[in-house]
């Protein structure tokens, strides 16, 4: 059992002859009691502080364990999130690359088809234009040939008609009747010249009308030939 200051204070000793001085012993005991009380108080304070420190240490240890556990959980969660993000990123990148390749392939195929169709269409147009040009060239050559034939025939016709008009027979026919008479028939000649002049004037007008009709016929024939050539 621990000794208390009260035990020291209440402690009594038997008195004997030639023993210690009672007052000195009491004074010394008082000093011991005070020191002991001080030591007990300090011990009590120390125990209290130690207990408080131990409680704090326990709290901090528990807090440390909780923090460590939280750190472990947080690290594990972060690792999982990182792995998930990396996997998702890989999936997104892979999908994007696949979509991009598909889009590029489709665009290339469409472009090739468009170019191929354009080339085919251009070739068809070129072939049609070439065939049309050749056809027009043949038609132009035919038209020129027919025009040359028409020009040659018309020239021959006009030249033949002109030769007929300029022939001696026509000159002889157109010669006045009075030119066949000599000077002995002066009166008759004058009378005939007067009458023949009137007839010739009328005849020339009539021939001019006839020639106009003939030229009209030639013009109509030329138009018919031209229409035939054009067709």
From TrEMBL:
Residues 108-146 form a coiled coil. Transmembrane segments: none annotated. GO terms for biological process: cell division. Pfam families: DivIVA. Residues 199-231 are annotated as: Disordered. GO terms for cellular component: cytoplasm. Residues 222-231 have a biased composition (Acidic residues). Residues 199-212 have a biased composition (Basic and acidic residues). It is found in: Cytoplasm. Keywords: Cell cycle, Cell division, Coiled coil, Cytoplasm. Belongs to the DivIVA family. PANTHER family: CELL DIVISION PROTEIN DIVIVA. NCBIfam families: DivI1A_domain. This is Cell division protein DivIVA. It comes from Vagococcus humatus.
């Amino acid at each position: 059992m621990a000794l208390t200051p009260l035990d020291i204070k209440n402690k009594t000793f038997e008195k004997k002859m030639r023993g210690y001085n009672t007052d000195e012993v009491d004074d010394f005991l008082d000093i011991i009691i005070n020191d002991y009380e001080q030591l007990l108080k300090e011990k009590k304070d120390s125990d209290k502080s130690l207990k408080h420190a131990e409680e704090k240490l326990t709290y901090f240890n528990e807090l440390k364990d909780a923090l460590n556990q939280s750190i472990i959980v947080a690290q594990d969660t972060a690792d999982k999130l990182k792995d998930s993000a990396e996997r998702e990123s890989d999936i997104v990148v892979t999908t994007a690359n696949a979509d991009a390749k598909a889009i590029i392939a489709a665009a290339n195929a469409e472009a090739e088809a468009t170019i191929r169709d354009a080339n085919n269409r251009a070739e068809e147009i070129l072939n049609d234009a070439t065939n049309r040009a050749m056809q027009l060239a043949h038609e132009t050559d035919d038209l020129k040939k027919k025009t040359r034939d028409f020009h040659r025939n018309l020239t021959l016709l006009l030249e033949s008609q002109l030769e007929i008009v300029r022939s001696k027979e026509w000159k002889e026919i157109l010669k006045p009747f009075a030119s066949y008479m000599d000077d002995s028939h002066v009166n008759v000649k004058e009378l005939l010249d007067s009458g023949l002049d009137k007839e010739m004037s009328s005849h020339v007008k009539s021939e001019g009308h006839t020639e106009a009709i003939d030229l009209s016929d030639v013009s109509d024939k030329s138009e018919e030939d031209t229409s035939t050539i054009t067709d």
